[in-house]
Design a protein that fits this description.
With 251 residues, the protein is an alpha/beta fold. Helices cover 45% and strands 22% of the residues. The strands form two sheets. The chain has a seven-stranded mixed sheet, sandwiched between helices. Strands 1-2 form a two-stranded antiparallel sheet. Helix 3 packs across helix 4 and helix 8 packs antiparallel against helix 9.
């Protein structure tokens, strides 16, 4: 497999060229990001995200639970964390894409959560947040778009406190015989066309499909998480492997 940092969809490119191309995709889809995930997951991403937040176990009382959500500009995971903590959470959202952050800020205001969730433009490979600042680091459907995944994992480890939890939800390769062919056919033939019909943007949706295929399988990615220093690394597959939740602990 070609290193994912050297690919953009099914094209081989330089690592330096990847980020601007990814940024352009997400500028285009920002206003319809939830719809994009609905199309990519068959509307199941909401359940997977709820399961991810449950695994993080945000504290409901006492000292506010401190978390960072990376590549989560629209606030989807951050709002879930605050809700799961019954308001007893403070979440910093970091995203490299200003358009995604604009959507998140607007949603936070509408939900009355601007005091609980803050939005910051930043790069997952070089976070500005200090060492050991958070009890949880979450990233959902974002890490496959990072050019240097190893750097992002190292940064996740750095900003977590001792005992802090890492949780990464990402699309993966279907591992159920028969269903894999069905899902691949759906991904190739249906998702880009739906993107064209609903969002007027077939190319961005085709990139998103292709980026899943380039992403490391769950065993390889789990090994990368361990290489970053995390312990108790676990994987949980959802819906036949369409998505996988990867977790680890900083010890």
């Amino acid at each position: 497999m070609t290193d994912i940092g050297n690919t953009f969809g099914d094209r081989t490119i330089s690592v330096e060229d990847k980020q601007p191309l990814v940024d352009d995709v997400f500028h285009k889809v920002a206003s319809r990001y939830d719809l994009m995930n609905d199309l990519m997951s068959g509307f199941l991403h909401r359940l997977w995200k709820d399961a991810m937040v449950t695994k993080v176990r945000p504290r409901k009382s006492g000292k506010p639970f401190k978390a960072i959500d990376v590549a989560g500009g629209t606030g989807d995971i951050a709002f879930r964390l605050v809700d799961a903590a019954r308001g007893n959470a403070q979440v910093d959202v970091v995203d490299i894409n200003a358009s995604m952050l604009d959507v998140g800020r607007e949603r936070a205001i509408k939900r009355g959560l601007e005091e609980k969730v803050s939005f910051h433009e930043g790069n997952a490979e070089a976070l500005e947040q200090p060492d050991g600042a958070y009890e949880a680091y979450t990233i959902a459907f974002g890490i496959r778009n990072v050019p240097r995944i190893d750097l992002a994992l190292s940064e996740a480890y750095r900003v977590l406190r001792f005992g802090g939890r890492f949780a990464c939800l990402e699309f993966s390769k279907v591992d159920v015989p028969g269903f894999d062919a069905v899902y691949n056919a759906y991904s190739d033939a249906v998702i880009p066309k739906l993107g064209s019909m609903v969002a007027g943007d077939e190319d961005s949706y085709r990139y998103l499909v292709e980026s899943i295929r380039q992403f490391p399988n769950k065993a390889r990615f789990a090994a990368m998480i361990e290489d970053a220093g995390f312990k108790r690394v676990e994987t949980i597959s959802y819906s036949g492997g369409i998505a996988v939740l990867h977790t680890g602990v900083k010890l």
